[in-house]
Every structure is written in C-alpha cells, then in structure tokens.
C-alpha cells in the first residue's frame, strides 16, 4: 500500500480482522493519520513489522505530534521491527513506543527531527539490536535485509559502526 491515496475513512470502511498479517507497509500514505493506524492496530493483531516512513518534506519544520507514535504503542504492542523515518513524533512518542512495544529488535527513526533522545531514551535505544537514530544516514534499510548500524551515543557526533 505504500504511496497510495488511501484515507482514514477508506481504512475504517473496509478494514476487517486480518489476524495473520505480520507486515504492514503504509509508507508515504499521507492521508492516513492516527485514526487509520488505530484501525489497523485493532484489526491486525499479529503485526510484527510496521513500515510508516514518510517523505522528508518539511519534517523538521513542523511541530512535534506524538499521536501516531502513541497509537502505535497502544494498538501494536507486539511489533518487533518499526520503520518511522521522517516521523513528526518527539521524545514523548518514542518513549511510549519503547515502553509498550517490548519486543522491538529493529527501530529506524532516520529524519525524525523532533526526537532529541533526552533522558533515558538514548540508553533505551542502545539496547535495541538494530537502531538507526534521526541523524543516521545509511544506504541499507531494514526492510531489504541489509546490515544495520549500531550507534554510539557517547560521542556528540554519533559515531556509527556497521555491525
């Protein structure tokens, strides 16, 4: 479904339980909001991998909006791999995801400029097997099975080592 004109209203009208769906890719679906995400989360109870990458348009200029991250945290707690590149969420939304989605092994938040990784967030992210922070620029993507990066938060330049 990536890059479609599907809307929240379409999702709500046509969604039905999909108990065997483990991967959902709604990247670049600009007309889906937290309302549509909630419908997917409530009807796709076996989701393990969510791709919700957005285009980089003005991502850093818009104020933080944690509604999608909070919805993901509360309706998709079994997620193991999450791609949220260029999301508008901030530290609060990321904290919700990390607190509720206990099985995360892969998290990609490249370009999510409202995330600052304050408080315990940096340490929480370091524990994730494959984490790509907002400032990571990588050729490989989790979705194609390429290697991920391990980020060292001790340096302000965020040294990246491919592991």
Description:
There is one protein chain. With 163 residues, the protein is an alpha/beta fold. The chain contains five helices and seven strands; from the N terminus they run H-E-H-E-H-E-H-E-H-E-E-E. The strands form two sheets. The protein has a five-stranded parallel sheet with strand order 1-2-3-4-5, with no helix packed on it. A two-stranded antiparallel sheet has the order 6-7. Strand 1 (23-25), helix 2 and strand 2 form a beta-alpha-beta unit. Helix 1 runs parallel beside helix 2 (34-43) and helix 3 (67-75) runs parallel beside helix 4.
Describe the protein's topology.
Layout: H1 8-14, E1 23-25, H2 34-43, E2 49-51, H3 67-75, E3 81-83, H4 91-100, E4 106-108, H5 121-126, E5 130-132, E6 149-152, E7 159-162
Parallel strand pairs: 1-2, 2-3, 3-4, 4-5
Antiparallel strand pairs: 6-7
Helix pairs in contact: 1-2, 2-3, 3-4
The average pLDDT is: 85
Order of helices and strands: HEHEHEHEHEEE
Q: Helical amount among residues, as a percent range?
A: 25-40%
Distance between the termini: 31 Å
> How much beta, percentage-wise?
5-15%
> Count the helices. How many?
5
Radius of gyration: 15 Å
Please mark out the parts with pLDDT under 50 across 5 or more consecutive residues, or reply none: 140-163
Shape: globular
Largest sheet: 5 strands, parallel
